[in-house]
């Protein structure tokens, strides 16, 4: 039985009447076998708080009490064996088991970190390989109707992949399998909404046109560069002596060695002044 908004409200009313339970969102999801995605798909604005308000039991919150038993490896294996026993003719997929047991996929990955769903099936004695249906159980008309329902629910806005994954009744893989992209789904839905018929063949989205930004091309045009107009850095002729290999350029003069203090003050004729300057420079460390 698939979860609906009315069924979740009835479950919330039944849940708050249970004696000595910890009335929290996590405890509710575990006891009533509801996945977080199901809760937020039917109550997208506030989730758990919105559900309590819709059920009229928003004042029945209780943080103390008996919590639902948490999942572990043994309990997951036991629940999978019970699912296989009670549903012998059902294709064993992770989505169906999680929906039946009311757990999230992250719970399986947390307790079976190496290969997740495959390790859980192997430990339960089942074939660890992934099973897929021979054909999709969704038709093109059902997908287009579901896409239109999500658009109308969100106020006729352009739907994102995150919103489709949360609110639609099918996965994104189903959309990509039939349409290839969200853009192709959108233009086919527009034709379907206008005519009431599924396009055959499916319409292809037009190629994306990139409009140039003309503000980037408003520079003034450059003047033409004529051959008779030499470049400024070629205007000055090269000296002939630089072009003559027999006339090398003069050598670079080598710097003279630094002068001593006596040589530096040798031009001072007054002996007393020269000695006083030498004393001051030597006292200053020069």
TrEMBL record:
Domain of life: Bacteria
UniProt biased composition (Pro residues): 246-258
InterPro entries per the UniProt record, alphabetical: Homeodomain-like_sf (IPR009057)
Residue ranges of the region described as Disordered: 235-261
This protein's name: Division inhibitor protein
Organism: Stratiformator vulcanicus
């Amino acid at each position: 039985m698939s979860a609906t908004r009315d069924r979740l409200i009835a479950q919330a009313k039944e849940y708050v009447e249970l004696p000595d339970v910890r009335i929290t969102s996590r405890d509710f999801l575990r006891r009533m076998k509801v996945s977080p995605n199901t809760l937020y798909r039917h109550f997208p604005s506030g989730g758990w708080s919105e559900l309590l308000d819709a059920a009229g039991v928003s004042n029945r919150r209780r943080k103390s009490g008996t919590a639902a038993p948490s999942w572990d490896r043994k309990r997951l294996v036991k629940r999978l064996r019970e699912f296989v026993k009670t549903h012998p003719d059902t294709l064993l997929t992770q989505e169906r088991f999680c929906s039946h047991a009311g757990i999230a996929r992250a719970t399986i990955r947390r307790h079976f970190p190496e290969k997740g769903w495959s390790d859980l099936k192997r430990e339960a004695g089942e074939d660890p390989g992934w099973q897929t249906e021979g054909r999709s159980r969704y038709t093109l008309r059902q997908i287009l109707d579901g896409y239109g329902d999500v658009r109308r629910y969100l106020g006729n806005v352009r739907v994102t992949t995150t919103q489709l994954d949360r609110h639609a009744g099918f996965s994104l893989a189903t959309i990509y399998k039939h349409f290839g992209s969200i853009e192709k789904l959108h233009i086919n839905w527009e034709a379907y909404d206008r005519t009431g018929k599924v396009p055959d063949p499916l319409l292809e989205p037009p190629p994306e046109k990139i409009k140039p930004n003309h503000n980037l091309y408003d520079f003034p045009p450059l003047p033409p560069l004529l051959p008779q107009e030499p470049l400024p850095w070629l205007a000055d002729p090269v000296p002939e002596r630089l072009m003559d290999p027999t006339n090398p350029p003069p050598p670079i003069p080598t710097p003279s060695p630094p002068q001593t203090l006596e040589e530096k003050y040798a031009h001072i004729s007054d002996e007393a002044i020269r000695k006083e300057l030498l004393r001051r420079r030597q006292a200053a460390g020069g």
